[in-house]
Amino acid sequence: MTAVTGERQRPGPGHWRGRLRRTLLATLLTVAVVLPLSAAVRPRIPAPPPAALPARLTPAALATAYDANRENAAEAARMAAAHGDSSRAAADRVLASPARHLLRFDARGDGQVTEVLGDLPHATRVAVLVPGSDTTLDTFARFHAAAESLYRRLAHEAPGGTRTAVVAWLGYRAPATISTTVLTTARAGQAAPHLRTFLRELRTLTAPEPAAVALLCHSYGTVVCARAAPGLTGLGVTDIALVGSPGTGADSAAALRTSARVWAARGADDWIAEVPHVSADLFGTTVGFGTDPVSPAFGARVFAAGPGGHSDYFTPGSASLANLTRIVLGETTEVTRA
Prior knowledge:
This protein is an alpha/beta fold.
């Protein structure tokens, strides 16, 4: 017989797991209905195939690649304008500017862009930014702004003899924030081989020796970096920074199986803190990303990010930008911990 104590029994772990599964299932069902309707709103925008580039880029071929990709962006702008999509045409025209250095450019679909800021062939330290959900060719301007903010800070802070460059890598089809794909590692699994291929290519584009590379990953981009991490040995990646992460799909930093230092940060006003840091199996698919990267259980080096929100990690003057700059420059003892 169960004793009556007069106290309300606390729900056990099974109760909360059940609630989580029901919540995630409701989310999946909602987006399954919403997305087919919203996807039909905007017709596919015509665009040229990517420019023909050498199979293996070299420092000497970079200028040619930049020119070819700018021309391709200009052609994409003309095609989008003729199609009546003034927003995409404007985004393409901005990327076709002579001031932009596009290592890769593909205007088809959501678009993919890899942009270089700085003198890549002579850089001794390179930051590669990996963006999260809702990053497309149409929204690339805000991703560029983050990369530019970091590049300016690096140029100001770099000690004598240290030359820096920043690469904004949108080399995958990022999921939409309101979608089923943002709840799983599927897109990250598709993106990870492309990120590793790019980092391998990057090793040949700096001289006289390969640069030290810091991988700075934001939001869903942290899931991409986590999936790529085990294959980064020998590619010059010294540090992986996870900011605004919903979880990585890994239980711990050790589970990433990388020799790089693993860092993590979250701004005090970042809504991602409200995302349940668990994973659940629904219809044979794992939904959710597990352990919170800023928790002690994950084991990353947690650094201060200040009071910012989810989109503020590269804001000029912020604590997070200062610490990311120190990580890129290898000044790890100067990073302020949370």
